[in-house]
Every structure is written in structure tokens, then in C-alpha cells.
């Protein structure tokens, strides 16, 4: 195996050398997913020193007492400080431990530090390999470093993009592959492209850095292409001019794009299959034969007499079955897979095909076995990841706080749809887009807290912290508003700047909102609990969930709420605290009052011994290692599609660790350009 940048750091961590290690880590290297996992496998426990008060609580309750009892630990305290600033730490910490420091400048001495610090840490493997193989002769400046990274990490040689096919191919590789360009690299690429006369009219500032902007640009040009392609099909003399379309386009640039070029058409079917683009009806064009019925275009055309949805379902099944999850996947691989899985599940649950439903259940069982194994090994490594690209729910508030920094009078609204699973988000998305065609949705997914209970995961979202830091309220949600306002007070806002409202979902959305917002409101936290209400009364399984959610959406509450927030100048984000899964009972524990939480998918016990006693009688249950949870909180989770209810009873529930419960949507909602 080739040496990596992690090896240089791991060499400094030998178990049982010191019970406490203080690390100056200004670039968040130790929280990189694979490095954090490697450290945990060596027996090291990692804890952040972001908030001195919160850290002192975790340190004193979790480690100091153990040391006093003579227990040995390998605790690593990660500080976002430069090496010289370690001396400002409390004296008792400096006396108890050794100090280390690591930074990107030491690992990449020939590249510009201000540029590489903007990179997602998952890219450092490729950057280290590129530095090792390319071996720059001299230290590269900012622009040379940007060009180096664009070429070696993203496969973009800006100087070789000379025409529209080159540009579309480069952007498709980036955005379809979900490779997010840091703003500094996107701007560098735009600077290169602006020197080309061929791209003078293109909306580069919108389609280069933003995947959703790029796909919206493609979406409005797809009908133009189809109409012209169909017209050319009827013109015998191919030298005749193509007919000009008078369709109004929001985005500037050429009206007709070369979708039929062999380097571009290979992406087209996948874009429609996975929901990145939406199929269209082509008025006045015969789609039953001719070139428009060709396989590469078929997925982007609505044909009234064809069951295209059945074809898409079959192809999505084939796609997911042929590319199963791998043991060495990162969390971002799982989120990308989960978004595709959600598209498939939503399509299957929207139809009444029993064979498709049975096939989905079989695939889901195999998928969730892999997911449970991955979570057991990797979940704890996600907790301290950077909130720049949120991986877990408690990162979201910190991500939003960064968006407020230096943003003038920006206002933020976070809508939490309680219990909304990713596949149900697909149903919500379709309704929102149908009711408000001006909406632009930037979709991603994040990990909920396990156990996926409202009192655990939703509080973590509003607190901006792991559940470890709110032990007193982990059994209820009564402190959510206080935790939400406390978080924002810690980021420079006053309580008058922060709003919070729960129990939304019915009635007059505008009246509810207008009563909450006043002139000083900068941040809103809104809980829409209608989906959770539907779930707890559901007797018709996952298909019934989709049906009931569709009926609720027809009332327009959510669309109206989002529209008014955008009108009032809020940047709007939508997420969920957990999802839900269709499951079947395997038996109900009869443990009396010893369980503090008695859910259908999760039971929580005050001691590991009590949990073990119950687990002996339920072989389908998994004792969950309480990473990030407070002392005295020991969950027992139902796995797969099983539940702690009477044998054979069918229901929709949450609390466990199925993909449908753990990965939830995180969506930014904006308006399309006027």
C-alpha cells in the first residue's frame, strides 16, 4: 500500500503512551473520516474543544473520574488552534497530557496553503498522491495551485475547454459525479472560461459552481432540443436551417445544446433515470417511432401510451443491484446511494405492483444488513466532521451559523419536517415543484442520530451538539426552543433575533408565520409534524404513507410556508430529524419499567446489564454502542425490518438504524432566476 498523508500523523499515536494528548489541529485533519476511524481502531477516543463549557462537562464526567479510579485511557483532545496557542489552555490539561500539532502546510509544502485549506478533507488522498507523482519543482502560487488541483483532482484542464461540448462534458463530470468545487476553484475555472469568446453568453457564474443551476439550465433546453431534433427528422435535406424556437429561456446562452454528441448523450439517460432532469411531453411530435423513440432519448420523454415508469423502475433496480455498497465507502458514498434508493422506493410505493414491492423489500433487507455493519464501524467517526459539508444533523446549525458570518442582514429559516424519510421527500419534492414552478431545490442528505428518536435526533439538530451535552432532556423535547436560542446566542445573536415554532402542518401557514416574524428576526426554527402524525396512525405501510403525504400536500401548507419565507427574504432550508421504515413485529419485550424508552424500533435502558438481559431473548436486536450519547443511556435497536411489537403486526416506525431511518434530506430552497 502506498504511503498516505495519514501515515505521518498516525506515527505519532502509539497506544498507552499518554492518557491525554492535546492536538493543535487548525485544519481539522484528525476529524477526517478515515483518520478518525484509524485512531479509534488503535483505541484512541477523540473529543473536540470547541466550547470550553461543553468540553469541561464531557471531560470531567467522561474521563477525569475514570482516571481517578486508575483507569487508563487514550484521550485525544482536538483544538482548532495553532501550535503556539496551546499554552493558553487550562493548566490542568497541560499538566496531564502531551501536546502535538499538525497542519496542511506541513503535509503539502509546495502548494498554496490558502487554497488547499478550502478543500474537503476527503480530497486529501488524491491531492497527496498527485503531489507525490507530479512533484512540483517549486512552491506553487495561488493560481498555479488552483490549476494543479483542477487538473489532478477534478480532471478539469481549463485551458483545453475550447467549445460547448468540452464545457458540457466537464460540467457533467463534475455535477453528475457530485464533485463539489470549492468557491475559489470554481471562480478560477470561470476566469479561464471567460477568456473564451465562445462562452461570452453562457451563465458561467450559475452553472459552474452550482449543480442545481446547471441542471436547471439543461432542463429548460431539453424541450428545445427535442423539438428541433424531431423537425430535423422530417427534413430530408439536412442542409436546411434548423427551425428556431421562440421558447422563453431564463438562463442566457445558446438555446440548443448538443445533447446528441456522443460525449454528452451517455449522461442523458442517467440524468432522467435518477431524477436530476424531469421528462417532458413534446406537443405535436409523434414519439411512437422515429429517432425520438431511440433508447438514449426515451428516458426524457413522456409518452402518453407507454408505461415509462415501469421501465424506469426496472432500470433503477438493475442499477442499484449491480452496484452494491462497499465496506470501505465514505459517508458521502452512502448519501449518494441513499438518494438513488429514495428515487426507486418512491416510484415503487407510488404504484401497486406486488412484484416490485417484494423485490424492493428483498433488496432493502440486504442493503440494511450492509448498512448496519458499516454504521457499527464508522458511525462514531462522523460526529466530529467539519460542518462545511454537514454529515450529521448536529452539523446543520453550525453550517447555517457560518452562512450568517459576514453576511450582512441575511436571514435563515430551518424547516424540520418531523419523520420525513428520503423516499417521502421525493414525493414532497414533486408536489412542491408542481405547485410552485419557480422553486429551485439543492438536495443532499445527512445522518440522523442513532437511536433515531425525536427526543435524541431533533434536539441534536436544534442544539447544534451531540446528545451527550443535553442528558437532562434526552427523554423529551421540551427544551428544544431553549437549546435553539442558546445555540444562536453563542454565535452572536440575541434571543429577540431567534424564532421557534412547533406543531405546524395544518391551518393557515401565513397566519402562523406572520405571528412569529418581526423586524428583528434573523433565524427561524420551524417544526412541521404532520408526517410524524401520519406515520403513527399508519396501517397501510409505506405505500399508505406516500398516499397520505400526497393528500396533505394538496392542501398547500408547505408550499405556502416556503413561498412566504422566501418572500420575506429568508434563506430556506428543509430537513428531518429521522425517517421511518415499514416493518413487522417479532415480539414485545416484557421488561416492565426497566426500559426508559419503549419504542417499536428502539428500547433504551439505564445500564448495559439490563439491556443485555433483554437482548438475550431477542436475537434480531442489536445493543448499540452509545457514541456521542450521555452516560446511562444504553439503546437496544431492532435491525432490518423487525420491530418490538407483537409477532406478525405490520407498522411504519422509527428508532432503529435502517437506511430509511438514518439518512434524511437536507435541502436548500431558492427561487429560479427571473
Helix and strand layout, with pairings?
Layout (H helix, E strand, L loop, with lengths): L4 H6 L9 E5 L8 H9 L3 E4 L3 H17 L6 E5 L11 H6 L1 E4 L2 H4 L5 H4 L7 H11 L7 H13 L9 H13 L6 H12 L9 H4 L3 H24 L27 H12 L21 H4 L9 H15 L8 H19 L4 H25 L14 H12 L6 E7 L4 H14 L3 E9 L6 H10 L16 H10 L8 E7 L4 H6 L8 E6 L1 H7 L4 H14 L2 H11 L2 E6 L5 E5 L11 E2 L3 E4 L2 H8 L5 E3 L10 E5 L3 E2 L6 E4 L5 H4 E9 L3
Parallel strand pairs: 1-3, 1-4, 2-3, 5-8, 5-9, 7-8, 10-15
Antiparallel strand pairs: 6-17, 9-17, 10-16, 11-12, 12-14, 13-14
Would you kindly provide a written description of the structure presented here, covering whatever features stand out?
It is built from 27 helices and 17 strands. The two termini are 53 Å apart. The chain is globular. The longest helix has 25 residues, at 354-378. A hairpin with a 3-residue loop joins β11 (597-598) and β12 (602-605). Residues 235-246 have low confidence and may be disordered. The protein is α/β, with parallel strands linked by helices and 674 residues long. Helices cover 44% and strands 13% of the residues. α16 crosses α19. Among the domains are: 5-107, Rossmann fold (3-Layer(aba) Sandwich), CATH 3.40.50; 377-580 and 660-671, Alkaline Phosphatase, subunit A, CATH 3.40.720; 583-657, no CATH class. The strands form 4 sheets. The chain has a 6-stranded mixed sheet, sandwiched between helices.
Short descriptors:
Alkaline Phosphatase, subunit A; globular; 674 residues; six-stranded mixed sheet; 27 helices; alpha/beta; Rossmann fold; four-stranded parallel sheet
Amino acid at each position: 500500500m502506498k504511503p498516505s498523508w495519514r501515515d505521518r500523523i498516525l506515527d505519532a499515536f502509539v497506544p498507552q503512551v499518554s492518557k491525554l494528548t492535546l492536538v493543535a489541529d487548525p485544519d481539522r485533519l484528525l476529524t477526517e473520516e478515515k483518520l478518525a476511524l484509524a485512531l479509534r481502531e488503535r483505541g484512541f477516543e477523540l473529543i473536540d474543544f470547541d466550547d470550553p463549557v461543553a468540553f469541561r462537562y464531557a471531560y470531567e464526567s467522561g474521563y477525569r473520574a475514570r482516571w481517578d479510579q486508575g483507569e487508563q485511557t487514550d484521550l485525544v483532545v482536538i483544538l482548532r488552534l495553532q501550535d503556539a496557542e496551546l499554552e493558553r489552555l487550562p493548566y490542568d490539561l497541560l499538566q496531564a497530557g502531551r501536546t502535538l500539532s499538525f497542519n496542511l502546510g506541513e503535509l503539502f509544502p509546495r502548494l498554496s496553503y490558502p487554497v488547499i485549506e478550502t478543500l474537503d478533507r476527503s480530497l486529501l488522498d488524491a491531492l497527496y498522491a498527485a503531489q507525490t507523482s507530479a512533484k512540483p519543482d517549486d512552491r506553487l502560487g495561488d493560481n498555479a495551485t488552483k490549476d494543479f488541483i483542477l487538473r489532478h483532482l477534478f480532471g478539469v484542464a481549463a485551458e483545453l475547454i475550447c467549445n460547448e461540448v468540452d464545457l458540457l462534458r466537464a460540467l457533467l463530470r463534475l455535477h453528475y459525479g457530485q464533485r463539489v468545487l470549492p468557491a475559489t476553484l470554481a471562480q478560477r475555472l470561470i476566469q479561464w472560461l471567460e477568456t473564451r469568446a465562445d462562452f461570452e453568453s453562457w451563465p458561467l457564474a450559475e452553472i459552474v459552481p452550482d449543480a442545481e443551476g446547471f441542471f436547471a439550465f439543461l432542463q429548460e433546453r431539453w424541450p428545445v432540443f427535442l423539438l428541433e431534433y424531431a423537425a430535423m427528422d422530417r427534413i430530408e435535406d439536412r442542409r436546411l436551417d434548423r427551425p428556431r424556437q421562440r421558447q422563453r429561456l431564463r438562463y442566457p446562452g445558446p438555446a440548443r445544446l448538443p445533447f446528441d454528441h456522443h460525449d454528452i448523450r451517455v449522461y442523458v439517460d442517467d440524468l432522467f433515470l435518477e431524477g436530476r432532469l424531469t421528462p417532458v411531453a413534446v406537443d405535436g411530435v409523434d414519439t411512437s417511432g422515429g429517432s425520438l423513440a431511440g433508447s438514449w432519448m426515451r428516458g426524457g420523454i413522456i409518452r402518453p401510451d407507454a408505461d415509462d415508469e415501469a421501465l424506469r423502475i426496472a432500470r433503477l433496480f438493475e442499477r442499484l443491484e449491480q452496484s452494491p455498497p462497499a465496506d470501505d465507502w465514505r459517508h458521502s458514498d452512502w448519501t449518494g446511494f441513499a438518494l438513488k434508493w429514495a428515487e426507486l422506493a418512491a416510484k415503487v410505493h407510488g404504484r401497486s405492483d406486488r412484484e416490485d414491492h417484494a423485490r424492493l423489500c428483498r433488496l432493502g433487507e440486504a442493503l440494511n444488513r450492509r448498512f448496519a455493519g458499516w454504521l457499527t464501524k464508522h458511525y462514531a467517526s462522523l460526529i466530529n466532521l467539519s460542518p462545511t459539508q454537514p454529515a450529521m444533523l448536529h452539523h446543520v446549525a453550525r453550517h447555517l451559523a457560518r452562512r450568517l458570518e459576514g453576511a450582512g442582514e441575511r436571514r435563515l429559516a430551518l424547516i424540520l419536517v418531523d419523520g420525513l424519510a428520503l423516499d417521502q421527500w421525493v414525493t414532497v419534492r414533486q408536489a412542491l415543484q408542481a405547485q410552485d414552478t419557480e422553486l429551485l431545490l439543492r438536495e443532499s442528505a445527512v445522518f440522523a442520530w442513532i437511536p433515531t428518536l425525536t427526543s435524541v435526533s431533533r434536539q441534536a439538530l436544534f442544539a447544534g451538539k451531540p446528545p451527550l451535552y443535553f442528558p437532562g432532556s434526552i427523554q423529551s423535547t421540551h427544551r428544544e426552543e431553549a437549546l435553539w436560542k442558546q445555540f444562536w446566542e453563542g454565535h452572536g445573536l440575541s434571543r429577540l433575533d431567534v424564532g421557534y415554532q412547533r406543531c405546524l402542518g395544518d391551518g393557515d401557514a401565513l397566519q402562523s408565520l406572520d405571528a412569529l416574524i418581526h423586524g428583528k428576526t434573523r433565524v427561524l426554527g420551524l417544526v412541521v409534524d404532520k408526517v410524524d402524525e401520519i406515520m403513527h396512525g399508519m396501517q397501510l405501510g409505506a405505500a399508505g404513507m406516500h398516499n397520505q403525504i400526497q393528500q396533505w400536500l394538496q392542501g398547500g401548507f408547505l408550499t405556502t410556508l416556503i413561498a412566504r419565507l422566501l418572500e420575506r427574504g429568508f434563506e430556506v432550508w428543509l430537513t428531518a430529524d429521522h425517517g421511518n421504515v415499514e416493518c413487522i413485529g417479532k415480539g414485545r419485550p416484557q421488561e416492565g419499567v426497566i426500559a426508559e424508552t419503549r419504542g417499536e424500533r428502539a428500547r433504551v435502558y439505564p445500564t448495559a446489564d439490563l439491556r443485555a438481559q433483554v437482548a438475550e431473548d431477542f436475537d434480531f436486536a442489536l445493543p448499540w454502542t452509545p457514541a456521542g450519547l450521555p452516560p446511562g443511556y444504553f439503546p437496544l435497536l431492532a435491525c432490518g425490518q423487525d420491530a418490538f411489537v407483537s409477532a406478525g403486526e405490520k407498522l411504519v416506525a422509527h428508532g432503529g438504524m435502517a437506511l430509511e431511518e438514518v439518512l434524511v434530506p437536507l435541502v436548500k430552497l431558492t427561487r429560479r432566476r427571473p
